[in-house]
Amino acid sequence: MENYDEEEVQDVEVDDGKKRKIPLRSNVWAHFTKLPCGNKGKCHHCRKTFTANRGNTTNLKNHLDRCRSYEGVKVEGDPKQQVFFRQKGKDKDDGVVKLSGGFSQEACRMALVKMIVKDELPFSFVEAEGFLEFIQTCCPRFDVPSRRTITRDILELYQHEKGLLKSVLGASKQRVCITTDTWTSIQMSNYMVITAHFIDAEWVLHKRILSFTPIANHKGDGIGKLIETCLIDWGIERLFTITVDNASANKVAITYVKKKLVNWSVNSMILNGLYMHVRCSAHIINLIVQDGLAEVNNSIASIRNAVKYVRSSPARLQKFKTCVDREKISYGGLMVLDLPTRWNSTYLMLHKAVVCEKAFDRMKEDDGHYFNWFVEEEGEKKREGPPSDDD
User: Fold this and answer.
1) Residue pair 100/138 in contact by the 8 Å Cβ criterion
2) Is this prediction's pTM over 0.85?
3) At what angle do helices 147-172 and 105-118 cross, to 10 degrees?
4) Taking the domain 173-279, which CATH number applies?
5) Which of 32, 105, 240, 260 is deepest in the core (most CB within 10 A)?
6) Omega before 140 cis (within 30°)?
7) CA distances, 242 to each of 181, 217, 235, 279 (Å)
């Protein structure tokens, strides 16, 4: 809180019997106006009048601590002022009380940079009209940087965080597990990502993305060279495992990395890398499920087409809801019936369709267009369906 002087005397009688005006010394008078009628002061914020008994400003100070009109300008008015505020916790009703200091241009700028990174916002967000109006209202003292400045700040933040992570990896010398994968974008550009997993001195598991970069192709030598470059860049000399999917090119990449690590250090690998190659279990499960789905592909295609018909227009969806009600099916979330793109959403589609099996059967009776829609050709090929009891 502000440091106020307890005693405040305005008129002082000197040796010659005359009274002299002594300047007001207490900081509290920056928020009050001294009234001519006695020792009273009028608050600048709430416009209320209070008495300073015998020149003592404690009463005025106590009011200023409680003045609601003054709360909104405490921090803005005094850079040294500290206030308590409530920050949202993980739970909606959970709040964490924190102590905030005064205004800091650098702190606000760094918070803005981190917000853009965490929320994956475009750099032009700082020049958006709505954001500028928001800042002007809640924090007019903050000078919003341009998108070019934000770009430089993000690069500086990356270099700073990279330096901190390299110091952790270099100081502890613990072994690191890495995971890598490659893919091709819609623009037919090839990318590769490398993620590191390690345990710190406190036995806390960490995961950090070390590299996200274009790659010429998906060949094993190219993948291996990028892994080698990444390890050298981050100063990682002690490797534990490399987790990849079951593509044949990854086997070549692991062999390449092993040859390079042998020349780095005696302890660069465990058991000469005998168990370094770890195959991604999620990819293996995905392959198993895809083979299983291929055995019933026609039935799945038939059910998918039925769902596609229901979702093709609001009128058909409403017709299907009517069939659900007539069959007295207790079913929520009809909008979940959507075309799947991955095998786990195929499962969700089948799970919902089984519940509504009778409703699909009633569609054959109540909707004359339902059966005819499957007779039509789609891409010079007849549609599978409608789904039968066996499907």
Assistant:
1) no
2) no
3) 80
4) 3.30.420
5) 32
6) no
7) 11, 19, 16, 8
Provide the b/e sequence for 358-376 (b: ≥16 CB within 10 Å): ebbebbeeebeebeebbee
C-alpha 190/C-alpha 182 separation (Å) is: 7
In whole angstroms, give the CA distance from residue 67 to residue 32: 12
β-sheet bridge partners, residue 95: 88
103-153 pLDDT per residue, tens: 778 888 899 999 999 999 999 899 899 999 888 888 888 888 888 999 999
Q: Where do the CATH 3.30.420 domains begin and end in the chain?
A: 173-279
101, 82 Cβ separation under 8 angstroms = yes
Q: Is the dihedral of CA 341, 347, 353, 357 positive or negative?
A: positive
User: Rounded distance, CA 24 to CA 42, Å?
Assistant: 15
Give the span between the Cα atoms of 80 and 102, in whole angstroms: 5
Question: Is 64:44 a contact under the CB 8 Å cutoff?
Answer: no
State the amino acid at position 124 in one-letter form. S
pLDDT tens figures, 54-109: 667 777 777 877 776 665 555 444 545 555 555 555 555 555 555 555 677 888 88
CB–CB of 58/71 below 8 Å? no
Mutual angle of helices 357-366 and 297-311, in 10-degree steps: 60
User: Which tokens in the block code for residue 113?
Assistant: 């940079």
Distance between CA atoms of residues 91 and 87, nearest Å: 11
Are the beta carbons of 35 and 48 closer than 8 angstroms?
A: no
